[in-house]
Amino acid sequence: MTAVDDRTKIEFFENLEVPEGWRVELLRGDIVMMASPDRIHNWIVQDVQDQIPRDRWDRLQTQDIDIPGEPSEPVPDLVVYERGIITGPGRLIPAPAVTLLLEVVSKTSASRDYADKKSIYAAGQVPAYLIIDPFEAKCVLFTEPTGVGAGADYSAQRITKFGDPAPLDLLGITLDTSRFQTLER
Questions:
Q1: Which residues are CB-contacts of 60 (< 8 A; sequence separation ≥ 6)?
Q2: C-alpha to C-alpha distance for 177 and 10, rounded to whole angstroms
Q3: How far is the C-alpha of 141 from the C-alpha of 101, rounded, in Å?
Q4: What is the pLDDT of residue 21?
Q5: Cα–Cα dist 53/59, whole Å
Q6: Phi, psi of 113, deg, nearest 5
Q7: Distance between CA atoms of residues 101 and 78, nearest Å
Q8: DSSP states of 69-85 as a string?
Q9: The pTM is what?
Q10: Which residues 6+ apart lie within 8 Å of 156 measured at CB?
Q11: How many CA atoms lie within 13 A of 24 on its CB side?
């Protein structure tokens, strides 16, 4: 895709009218629409958000992320960055300002969450990417982003089963995962 095509697609994406009950995001030039998530998904996001101290961290749900050098504007389930680092209005949070991004796996998002978004977030040098998977009853924390573009990845990974404490060292907390509910495929 050329730079002109990227700009045209981004302009189209930014002006796209999305039906009620749907979300849309731009992932490496592809526009992806998805239905609103299950309540269990939202309860997990809410539970994680409640455990992150608000006095130190801003915790925004479904906020668009600007990934430098990528034709992507992903919309993670939760964006965490230091309080006060972003001020004023705007739709996009620059990836370099972000400390942690969270995705909760849904019935249709597993391959995007574990592959596409992992690479996109690593390319954006987001220090920590947390996937919570209610189908597998586990949390997967990726840290130490390396590489650029489609070849970007994280070099460290920690898996925690639901019910076990999940350390989030970059935030200075340990998640209590005991209330996370599961879903069947």
A1: 78, 79, 93
A2: 37
A3: 10
A4: 67
A5: 9
A6: -65, -45
A7: 6
A8: TSS-B---SEEEEETTS
A9: 0.85
A10: 142, 143, 144
A11: 13
Q: Name which of 146, 87, 159 is nearest 118 in CA terms.
A: 146
pLDDT (tens, 9 = 90+) of the chain, 185 residues, equals 445 455 566 666 677 777 776 677 688 777 777 667 789 999 999 999 999 999 999 999 989 999 998 889 999 999 999 999 999 999 899 999 999 999 999 988 899 999 999 999 999 999 999 999 999 999 999 999 999 999 999 999 999 999 999 999 999 999 999 999 999 98
User: Would you list the DSSP string of the chain?
Assistant: --HHHHHHHHHHHHHPPPPTTEEEEEETTEEEEEEPPPHHHHHHHHHHHHHS-TTTEEEEES-EEE-TTSS-B---SEEEEETTSS-S--SEEEGGG-SEEEEE--TTTHHIIIIIHHHHHHHTT-SEEEEEETTTTEEEEEEEEE--GGG-EEEEEEEEETTS-EEEGGGTEEE--TT------
What is the residue type of 118?
K
